[in-house]
Design a protein that fits this description.
100 residues, alpha+beta, 3-stranded antiparallel sheet
């Protein structure tokens, strides 16, 4: 993947979110859990950055995003997202599993 360092960091974070969701039995998590998970991977992210990641992933149909009653967001991985998380498919803007 070409682009700036910031583009590569963002692409890595998108893959990390997909991988976290793919590991969960439900395939779903809210933005707070995803933020905590990314921070646990030494990714210094805010809730707003995670919302941006989810918005982008939703726009390319890798996750379905819903707004919850408390105005937070939750994401559920799609089959397409699951395939990307496991390296069976690639999407421009998401790092490949074998690259990280």
């Amino acid at each position: 993947m070409s682009g700036t360092f910031a583009d590569r960091v963002e692409a890595d974070r998108r893959l990390f979110v997909l991988q976290m969701l793919a590991e969960l039995d439900s395939g779903s998590a809210n933005e707070r859990a995803l933020t905590t998970g990314l921070r646990g991977m030494n990714e210094d992210v805010t809730i707003d950055q995670v919302r941006s990641l989810l918005s982008w992933l939703g726009s390319v149909r890798l996750v379905n995003v819903i707004q919850l009653a408390d105005s937070s967001y939750s994401a559920t991985i799609t089959q397409r997202g699951y395939d990307v998380a496991h390296g069976r498919s690639s999407i421009p803007g998401v790092s490949r599993k074998d690259r990280i």
